[in-house]
Amino acid sequence: MPVKEFSIRIDGELVKATEGQTILEAARAAGKYIPTLCYLEGLSAVGACRLCIVQASGTDRLLPACTTPVQDGMSVTTNSPRLTEYRRIAVELLLVERNHICSVCVSNGRCELQAMAQSLGVTHVRYPYNYPSLPVDMSHERFVLDHNRCILCTRCVRVCAEVEGAHVWDITSRGIQARLVSDLNQPWGEARSCTSCGKCVQACPTGALAEKGRSVEEMLKRNDNISALATQRGVLA
Amino acid sequence: MKKVRLATVWLDGCSGCHMSLLDIDAGILAVAQQADIVYGPLVDAQEFPENVDITLVEGAVSSQDDLSKIQKIRSRTRVLVALGDCAVTGNVPAMRNSIPVSRLLQRVYTDGPTGKLTIPSDGVPQLLKQACPLHDYVKVDLHLPGCPPSSQAILGVIKDFLAGKKPELGSKVKFG
Predict the structure, then answer these.
(1) Binary contact (B92, A104; C-beta < 8 A)
(2) What is the 3-class SS of B37-60, one letter each residue?
(3) Rounded-to-integer distance, Cα A201 and Cα A39, Å
(4) A120/B contact by beta carbon, under 8 A
């Protein structure tokens, strides 16, 4: 069956898209920027972080660009004062939920959450901080899981299940109690399905997953090769 | 021309923001032409004066003393700037916030190897339950995050205020 071609408008500009593409994929193919945090090219999209929300003609609801399929003739707005305000709110709520102390974090200066706050012009947080008491899992030989920095984006969960094929990670509990767990809620070092490949560490946008022995600002990550690998293997196909 | 009255304050922080302020180097000369520094760790004044135009506050609000200071400062200041991550987010001082104060003091002062020390109570201010950003207690006019904010960011903010305009920080500053 031939792929149907769609014509859509992104920020007023006429853009070609194909049936089955998401708004985010069509926008990126057209060189348009939409901010994302939980999305990682090559992995399945979950629409968890709400940074990629856009306005679409015909609905007042804001739609996550990473999970919304394009429709023929649709008109999308990727940037507006309303969208910026909601994106700021999303980032501020992530910052209050756990203990994101940038100044002493392994990912300071290389963190996607920190960079997102900066690019959206978040100079302070308007909501009360939660200050939860959270553990740091040091049981793995080579890696560390710091729940204080986790934003539950599930990039680690997806890269492990979809690319490595091990599915070590999952999320347990709901709402504010939600936690990243390895295997059946065992310490990471005792998770027998873990191959120690480190893809989760590279995919993590913050300092939640890091290599052991890294100090402040030292955790340099690369996820372009993860995207390349996932695309080569046709994870989404 | 009447000089602008500028103050700086050091609450629960490491003084790194003041170090960054000192790093404006010769930039201080241009500031000094238009402003007098009337209070702060860098000058002698003992009491926070009345009628201050701009106050830069470093540090989180952590103790009863910090709290009474920041309330007095707010009532005597036209423009209050939260200087650096501790004043803006709580930052490192706030890392104690999930621990009850009594357990914290016990761990620091009496659980040591000798076990002979006592928790100090005379001449030291009571700790608040949590170390919090300034805007939890008082209205803040400008947030300048960073650990520390760069000297150029601090100088830029001071210069903007001296020129009578509100600084637009936008994406020029970051946490950490």
Answers:
(1) yes
(2) EEECCCCCCCCCCCCEEEEEEECE
(3) 15
(4) yes
Tokens matching residue A138: 């040091």
Task: Give yes or no for a cis peptide into B148 (omega within 30° of 0).
Answer: yes
Can you list the domains of chain A with their CATH numbers?
Answer: 5-79 (3.10.20.740), 85-232 (3.30.70.20)
Nearest CB neighbour to A103, from listed B85, B144, B170? B85
- Cα atoms found within 13 Å of the Cα of residue B69, Cβ hemisphere only: 23
pLDDT average, residue stretch A42-67: 97
The residue written with tokens 């990629």 in the block is A52
Would you say the pTM of this structure is higher than 0.90?
yes
pLDDT given at position B170: 84
Tell which of B132, B173, B174 to mutate to test the A interface (max A CBs under 10 Å): B174
Per-residue model confidence (pLDDT) at position A234:
80
Please give the distance of CA A204 from its chain centroid, rounded to a whole number: 8
Per-residue confidence at A237, pLDDT binned at 50, 70, 90? Answer: low
Residues of A with Cβ-Cβ distance to B92 under 8 angstroms: 101, 103-104
Q: Which has the closest alpha carbon to B129: B73, B37, B85, B63?
A: B63
Where in chain B are the domains?
4-97+128-172
- Taking the Cβ of residue A116 and every Cβ of chain B, the question of whether any pair is shorter than 8 Å is answered with no
What angle is formed at CA A218 by the lines to CA A201 and CA A190, rounded to 5 degrees? 35
Residue B121 pLDDT level (bands cut at 50, 70, 90): confident
* Rounded Cα–Cα distance for residues A199 and A195 (Å): 10
When CB atoms are compared, the residue of A99, A102, A115 closest to B85 is A102
CA distance B131 to B128: 7
Is A189 within 8 Å of A141 (Cβ atoms)?
Answer: yes
The mean-pLDDT minimum among A2-6, A109-113, B13-17 falls in A2-6
Owner of token pair 């601090």: B154
The type of residue at A120 is L
Identity of the amino acid at B52? V
The Cα of B46 is separated from the nearest Cα of chain A by a number of Å equal to 31
Residues B47-94 pLDDT 10s: 999 999 999 999 999 999 999 999 999 999 999 999 999 999 999 999
Topology (CATH) of B4-97+128-172: Rossmann fold (3.40.50)
B174/A124 touch (CB, cutoff 8 Å), yes or no = no
